[in-house]
Amino acid sequence: MFEAITQNLTEALGNMARGKLSESNIRDGMAQVRHALLEADVNYDVAKDFCDRVTEEAVGEQVLKSLKPGEQIVGIVYRELVNLMGPVDHSIELRRGEMTVLMMCGLQGSGKTTTCGKLAKMLKEEGAKPMLVAADLQRPAAIEQLKVIGEQIGVPVYAEPADRSSPVKVCQNGRKEANRQGCNILILDTAGRLHVDDALMKELIEIDNRLMPHQALLVCDAMTGQDAVNSAKSFNEALELDGVILTKLDGDTRGGAALSVKAVTGVPIKYIGVGEQLDRLEQFHPDRMAQRILGQGDVATLLETA
Amino acid sequence: MGMFDKLKSALTKTKDVLRTDVRDLFKAGVILDDAKLEEFFRGLVTTDMGVVAAQSIVDELKAKFGGRTVEPDDVWGVVKGKLKEILRGEGDCNWDVTDPLSPLNLAEEGPTVILVCGVNGVGKTTSIAKLANYLQKAGKKVVLAAGDTFRAAAVAQLTMWSERLGCEIVTKPAGTDPAAVAFEGCDRGVESGADVIIIDTAGRLQTHQNLMQELGKIHRVIGKRIPGAPHESLLVLDATTGQNGLSQATKFSEAANCTGIVLAKLDGTAKGGVVVAIREKMGIPVKYVGVGEQIDDMELFSPDDFVDALFSDV
Ligand SMILES: Nc1nc2c(ncn2[C@@H]2O[C@H](COP(=O)(O)OP(=O)(O)OP(=O)(O)O)[C@@H](O)[C@H]2O)c(=O)[nH]1
Ligand SMILES: Nc1nc2c(ncn2[C@@H]2O[C@H](COP(=O)(O)OP(=O)(O)OP(=O)(O)O)[C@@H](O)[C@H]2O)c(=O)[nH]1
Ligand SMILES: [Mg+2]
Ligand SMILES: [Mg+2]
């Protein structure tokens, strides 16, 4: 299945790169690019708009008159994809003399708790003193899970009994405890929630208002399909996200959600999760992601020969 | 103006289009032209059914009704009829609304074993709790086996559910071979005269070969302990999943011979359309849908309701 798409795209781009270009075969080729983007789970509107723009640019005189027009189009497709997803600022700025607060949010099961652990480990290795806060009082054993993770990486975890606390309260008390222990980063692990669940979205906004996180990070499953735009948009409207972390990229998903989420929210993707282990966090690279969405190695080869 | 800015402003314009209802597309008397068909294609793709399936439906509509005035009932009849037919399959799965256990293959004799697998975070453990609840309500005695010995506090999570359900659970320390937990779960089920044994497994991505082999081993060990088991091998899919669902269904079936799908998280805005492609290509039926995080947030799958829901507020 993936081979077929990759082949189509390779053919389309290859034909464009080799052959003589006319407006009509540019349009045919771009239709194939659009097909490939949809198969990679890029949202329909995002894919369509992308292809319309590139087509417009490509049929422009400059390209048709250039020496190697086909190659130029291949380049445009790739470059515009990269531009769309970049530039990326990977830094998590530490506040001087003040607690830096990071808040994770996202749909159920997207990888928030694991990513909290990964970030804490990374920051600790960079010399910071993080503390994790178990603000998911909802899912069975969510607190236990964060505690196990904290133990694995040697980072303190602040938690309160689920039946005698509230997410806001545990976050506020967590900050006090972090101050007391001399920590300088507080990472809030919130419960998974649907973007259409008004009560739970309100709860998240309340944490946001009370704790004023320096970064609100959306954790998004890279296997998400067309719906990625809907959830990302809602979380962004509620919280003004500072970044996105895309998880589970260690599988064979093409990861079109990356393009969709960035396009509809404008929020940069900062990190990617590439495994369950707590050291499996990497910086996001738009160029690699563009290659992955388009079919990995093949596009790279085409670009090299182009 | 950069490409990105252009795209952003264009998307603000299409924002409202995102909310259009596909049901309004085919109004009586309008001509079914390419623009209408493209808009319908968009609606189909948005359900995550995949470009190939969407294109074949659009092609069929074009051949049958292209350029003619629309009779909404005819057009919808073709579209929904085709999808319902695919999802229903050839009588290999039974969804009887009066009997929530109807889609399950139960053992003729002795305990039924249900193995539950899927990629990370899709809803396996929660679906097991929901399923156990169904079974207990039907008077069945259930034993759970906490076969996820890898993820932090996965055993604690299933244990909490078993306490709420009041059913027996077999656990072993973190890091134990999951096949050993499955084996002991079967043992325990047989000994205690359980009707159903449900085995949880760790989430795994289908491309990690060692983990898929581990799943294969769990499957084999169960069969060694109880011939003919597992009687059900359920793949849990997240309704937000896109085209990767096909790869999941393919590779999990290779390892664990999946007999049914639980489509979790259908309570969001995602449509879960990839199950259409999975049913068509691989024949695996959806048996249940998850519609929330609580224990009774599960429903029997219904091909008809599902297809109707695909087109509401796409
Ligand atoms: N393969 C892989 N698995 C991941 C990755 N990140 C998280 N996971 C797994 O995904 C599953 C869900 O992760 P959690 O961290 O519990 O997700 P969550 O968002 O906190 O879930 P809820 O709190 O229930 O909403 C677990 O099995 C994790 O091990 C990743 O980058 N790759
Ligand atoms: N909204 C909604 N959430 C669900 C549904 N099913 C499960 N969840 C939530 O999804 C998250 C993950 O569920 P789990 O049952 O832990 O998933 P899992 O597949 O066992 O995860 P791993 O064992 O980590 O791979 C939890 O927060 C659940 O509460 C559902 O049908 N709807
Ligand atoms: Mg969590
Ligand atoms: Mg689980």
Describe the structure.
Chain B: Its EC number is 3.6.5.4. Chain B: It is a peripheral membrane protein. Chain B: GO terms for molecular function: GTP binding; GTPase activity; signal recognition particle binding. Chain B: Residues 285-298 form the SRP54-type proteins GTP-binding domain. Chain B: InterPro entries: AAA+_ATPase (IPR003593), P-loop_NTPase (IPR027417), Signal_recog_particl_SRP54_hlx (IPR013822), SR_rcpt_FtsY (IPR004390), SRP/SRP_N (IPR036225), SRP54_GTPase_dom (IPR000897), SRP54_N_sf (IPR042101). The complex is a heterodimer of chains A (306) and B (314). Chain A is of the alpha/beta class and 306 residues long. Chain A is 54% helix and 13% strand. Chain A has 13 helices and 8 strands. Chain A has an 8-stranded mixed beta sheet with strand order 3-2-4-1-5-6-7-8, with helices on both faces. In chain A, helix 3 runs antiparallel to helix 5 (69-85). Chain A is elongated. The two termini of chain A are 26 Å apart. Chain B has 314 residues and is of the alpha/beta class. Chain B has 2 domains: 3-88, Up-down Bundle (Four Helix Bundle (Hemerythrin (Met), subunit A)); 112-258, 3-Layer(aba) Sandwich (Rossmann fold). Chain B is 46% helix and 13% strand. Chain B has an 8-stranded mixed beta sheet, with helices on both faces. The relative contact order of chain B is 0.16. At the A-B interface, helix 2, helix 3, helix 5, helix 7 and helix 10 of A face helix 1, helix 2, helix 6 and helix 9 of B. One guanosine-5'-triphosphate (GTP) sits between chains A (106, 108-114, 136, 139, 142, 191-192, 219, 247-248, 250, 273-276, 280) and B (120-121, 151, 203, 205). One magnesium ion binds next to helix 6 of chain A.
Identify the quaternary structure here. Answer: heterodimer
Output the radius of gyration of chain B.
22 Å
Widest β-sheet, arrangement of strands of chain A: 3-2-4-1-5-6-7-8
Number of helices of chain B: 11
Please count the helical segments of chain A: 13
Largest sheet of chain B: 8 strands, mixed
Tell me the Rg of chain A in angstroms: 22 Å
Name of the CATH superfamily of the largest domain in chain B: P-loop containing nucleotide triphosphate hydrolases
Number of strands of chain B: 8
Strand content of chain B is: 5-15%
Average of pLDDT of chain B: 91
Strand order of the biggest β-sheet of chain B: 3-2-4-1-5-6-7-8
Percent of residues in β-strands of chain A:
5-15%
Membrane topology (chain B): Peripheral membrane protein
GO cellular component, one term (chain B): cytoplasm
InterPro entries (chain B): AAA+_ATPase, P-loop_NTPase, Signal_recog_particl_SRP54_hlx, SR_rcpt_FtsY, SRP/SRP_N, SRP54_GTPase_dom, SRP54_N_sf
Function (chain B): Involved in targeting and insertion of nascent membrane proteins into the cytoplasmic membrane. Acts as a receptor for the complex formed by the signal recognition particle (SRP) and the ribosome-nascent chain (RNC).
